[in-house]
Amino acid sequence: MITAKDIRRILLVSGWFMILTLPILGMRVDPLSDNILWRLKNVMWVGLGTVVLQSLPHLWHLYLYLQAGMIRLWHHLMGTPPHKIVEKTAHRDSLINRVITNPRQRAILCAVVLTLTIIYPQVVNEYQINIMIMAFLYIMLGLGLNIVVGMAGLLDLGFVAFYAVGAYTYALLNLHYGINFWMALPLGGIFAGIFGLLLGFPILRLRGDYLAIVTLGFGEIIRVILENWIELTHGVAGIVNIPGPTFFGLGLTPSQKILYLYYLMVLFVVITIFVVNRLQDSRLGRAWLALREDEIACQAMGIDKRRTKLAAFSLGAFWAGIAGVVFAAQNRSVYPVSFSFLESAMILSIVVLGGMGSIVGVILGALILILLPEYLRELSQYRMLFFGAILVLMMIFRPQGLISVVRRKYDIDSIKAEEKEGGA
Amino acid sequence: MSEPILQVQNLTMDFGGIRALNKLDITVHSGEIAALIGPNGAGKTTFFNCVTGIYKPTAGDVFLTPGKGEKPVSIKGLKPNIVTGKGLSRTFQNIRLFPKMTVLENVMIGRHCRTKTFILGAIFRPPRARREEREILLHSYRLLEKVGLAAFANDFAENLSYGAQRRLEIARALATEPHLLLLDEPAAGMNPQETEDLNALIREIAAEGLAVLLIEHDMKLVMSLSQRIFVVDYGSKIAEGTPKEIRSNPAVIKAYLGE
Amino acid sequence: MHFDSQYFIELFASGLTKGSIYALIALGYTMVYGIVGLINFAHGEIYMIGAFVFFLASSLLTVLGLPMWAMICIATAASIFWAGGYGYTVEKIAYKPLRNAPRLSPLISAIGMSVFLQNYVMLGQTEKYLGFPEVIPEFDFLEPFASTFSSSDFVIWVTTVIVMLILTWIIKFTRTGKAMRATAQDRTMAELVGINVNQIISATFIIGSALAAVGGILISSHTGSIHYYIGFIAGIKAFTAAVLGGIGSIPGAVLGGLVLGMAESFATGYFSSAYEDVFAFSLLVLILIFRPAGLLGRAETEKV
Ligand SMILES: Nc1ncnc2c1ncn2[C@@H]1O[C@H](COP(=O)(O)OP(=O)(O)OP(=O)(O)O)[C@@H](O)[C@H]1O
Ligand SMILES: [Mg+2]
């Protein structure tokens, strides 16, 4: 129930937010006249919004209270004994997790999703296909970052730097040596991976939060270099006329090219899912998870902390590099602005929203965060604001993300059977 | 007497101005059960941390015999994972399991240092990697059976009872195939029945040829298990001997009972 | 090559100025890190918000026709008030609920806060560069040095020294300061002896934010422009300064700030100015490789 004290608190907090937002949202300097433009309406909205937000939990309680009262009243009138309040059932895996842990249902799900993905470009226009291609690219990036952040627990804020390395590797190699997409693909990944190794080697033996700031700095540095090393990168003018992927040397019409790119992306995403899935379920994947939980215990159990982290970090970088090559081929041009910190923040939001460590979660996160702003154009300027808020809110209210990770359950009976075999 | 497996000489550890270990000499022989006892804050856990490489000792030497018939090697200042690889494994006083991993996975982590599959192996799963994965699984499961936790294999480690968590730590340490096992207060928080089972478990482990060095405050357990006891107080060794000798040692009585 | 001493002194002066600003921001990082063990990524944004509030307040006051000195005082007070308010609120929203969460959570939350505040200011104000008023007058008695440093350099040095002295006094002698030191050393213990840790953490954020606001005002009037992105780069560099000096150490933050400012100034002066940010970052990596505990920090062994 709402007490007078609650109301006072709600008003106080709302008042505080109105004061707080008064200068930034409520005032603006008119650049022509140097006069102050007051925009107090904004501040009123903030006040109203905070009142509503704070009231929500109270309203929810009120609703539950009324509901309980109605039920009691009902039983009173009917003369039946009131039910015991049903205890909330103990934690159950979410529907999607129950499906993906069941091999048969998982196979069906994969088949259905894959079929839909393959049919999709036949039923929509080119614009939609292009958006989907972009979403696939972000799924790839998200799953790559997921190896680093989600599985190994290393906060990599410079992911986009490795992405840039991949993109520029292809752009430059193509520009100077005419190297085609398929040759650049592994090279971009390898270059980015080497960068990851060089950066990670000195830093990964230190406290985890240093990695965050170093990668953040590294991301900025790469961008600064791309902007300023004009002889090499053409600076902000970027590199244009990068060829798309070739198809066995056959000439393709523009619309065929888009289709080709689409199916290529599907292939890349499938490969990424396959790889991440296998890693998760391996000796290395377990070590990553364990390192996230307790580094000292891990080392005492014989895990080489640096080597193991380095594997995750540079593998993530490698994947970003690959995605970078794809990005360059898809856009046919690269500019330094594409590799700003906000891009890293966006990929991080995808991973955090979906669920760190969860493949399905990351896919879902990428689809939501990439497709939603595309279709809600009016809101697209609030995109980054929204991404920032997601990071904060998810950490507070649902740190496991939309879809939490399930640990693999081993079939004990089959282990026992194997054990007998082995013993016999 | 059999050959020494762990020789610690003159081990000293300072934290800022505080001397937590003072010129400690301790030798454990292969196949024996030894105990390290002393009042709270005596430096027992610090001793384990220095030996296993988690702390870097200020001075002194630590030698480990990494297998039957091999020469002792210095492990002083080596990283903990290298020390573990050489056949020294431990449990922690303040249990340090991986709470959000399953019981079976916790033990599987212990197999890490005896297996090899890395990135490419994990992705392409050649027959060698498959065999290795199966070996990890079976070996770990057998260890769970040994410590009586097989029924909980797929539960989260954090949901185990206190005594079960301590046994899981032992299973995880055994998974690294140590020659010497260091147990830091394995019976802390256990009820008498669990302590009894633990006693049997440690005997079983020792019977397989492992040397065991345990820190323990439960004197009944210590006296019943160990062939040799070291007593430390304020970081210095004040006595060493068989349980009988220790029981009647005036210095030990003084350290425990005060003046 | 001929050694140009005039040029050297100029670079030295500009390094001192930059270093002072870095030091002011680095203090906020280091104090927060000392007490809650968190890199407050949003700290750079607080610095930027401080500058914006000063800009808005001074414009308003100028329109009202207040004299220069009154305008500076009131606008500075407003800037400190709002920066402190934002710092306080950010802690309450984004960090306090996560105090016992896994290590990664508050870091991600902090990054989210930083992105949020940047875009909040961009949307609320503008994405363009804005001209910042020249609030620092030209002092006549500095005339002879005009070729080496400006009066705004001078004001920045003096203000920084004064602010440092005030901070030292707060931390050494006031109750709050003593409680802060106790909390930094051992939070549980501080709680047990009756220190209200929540209050102390809030106070730390407010003081750190106030310092950042002062830094924001000074540097913006020095460079003559503001932009919603200035907090981001300044934040990374100030953090570098804090790590350089030894994170958690207050004298370390000041020393780190000065060293970084000098290093940057000389590097840009003698090599290339386009890569200013690259120098700072390379310094950070070198420090972390060779002396992770920083210049004045002490390496500590985690208790196992
Ligand atoms: N990382 C560290 N930093 C500072 N001091 C430490 C550290 N680790 C241990 N100490 C100190 O060293 C001394 C010995 O501690 P230790 O934990 O080894 O005692 P113990 O014999 O294991 O005690 P208990 O029986 O309570 O477990 C204590 O005074 C402790 O405070
Ligand atoms: Mg101990």
Task: Please tell me about this protein's structure.
- The complex is a heterotrimer of chains A (424), B (259) and C (304).
- Chain A is mostly helical.
- Chain A has helices at residues 4-26, 40-78, 95-101, 103-123, 126-151, 159-177, 181-203, 208-228, 230-233, 254-280, 283-293, 295-300, 305-331, 341-354, 359-375, 383-397, 412-423; strands at residues 27-29, 36-38.
- Chain A folds into 2 domains: 4-78, no CATH class; 124-397, ABC transporter involved in vitamin B12 uptake, BtuC, CATH 1.10.3470.
- Chain A has 17 helices and 2 strands.
- Chain A has a two-stranded antiparallel sheet with strand order 1-2.
- Helices cover 37% and strands 24% of the residues of chain B.
- Chain C is mainly α and 304 residues long.
- Chain C has 11 helices and 2 strands.
- Chain C has helices spanning 5-36, 43-64, 68-95, 104-124, 151-173, 175-185, 187-192, 197-223, 230-245, 250-270, 276-290, and strands at residues 130-131, 225-226.
- The relative contact order of chain C is 0.20.
- Chains in contact: A-B, A-C, B-C.
- Chains A and C meet through helix 1, strand 1, helix 7, helix 8 and helix 14 of A and helix 2, helix 3, helix 4, helix 9 and helix 11 of C.
- Residues 44-45, 93 of chain B line the site of magnesium ion.
Write the layout of secondary structure elements.
The complex is a heterotrimer of chains A (424), B (259) and C (304).
Chain A: H1 4-26, E1 27-29, E2 36-38, H2 40-78, H3 95-101, H4 103-123, H5 126-151, H6 159-177, H7 181-203, H8 208-228, H9 230-233, H10 254-280, H11 283-293, H12 295-300, H13 305-331, H14 341-354, H15 359-375, H16 383-397, H17 412-423
Antiparallel strand pairs in A: 1-2
Helix pairs in contact in A: 1-2, 5-10, 5-13, 5-14, 5-15, 6-7, 6-8, 6-13, 7-13, 11-13, 14-15, 14-16
Chain B: E1 4-15, E2 18-29, E3 33-37, H1 44-51, E4 59-64, E5 73-74, H2 80-85, E6 88-90, H3 103-110, H4 119-124, H5 127-146, H6 162-174, E7 180-184, H7 192-207, E8 211-215, H8 219-225, E9 228-233, E10 236-241, H9 243-247, H10 250-257
Parallel strand pairs in B: 3-8, 3-9, 6-7, 7-8
Antiparallel strand pairs in B: 1-2, 1-4, 4-5, 9-10
Helix pairs in contact in B: 3-5, 3-6, 5-6
Chain C: H1 5-36, H2 43-64, H3 68-95, H4 104-124, E1 130-131, H5 151-173, H6 175-185, H7 187-192, H8 197-223, E2 225-226, H9 230-245, H10 250-270, H11 276-290
Antiparallel strand pairs in C: 1-2
Adenosine-5'-triphosphate binds next to α1 of chain B.
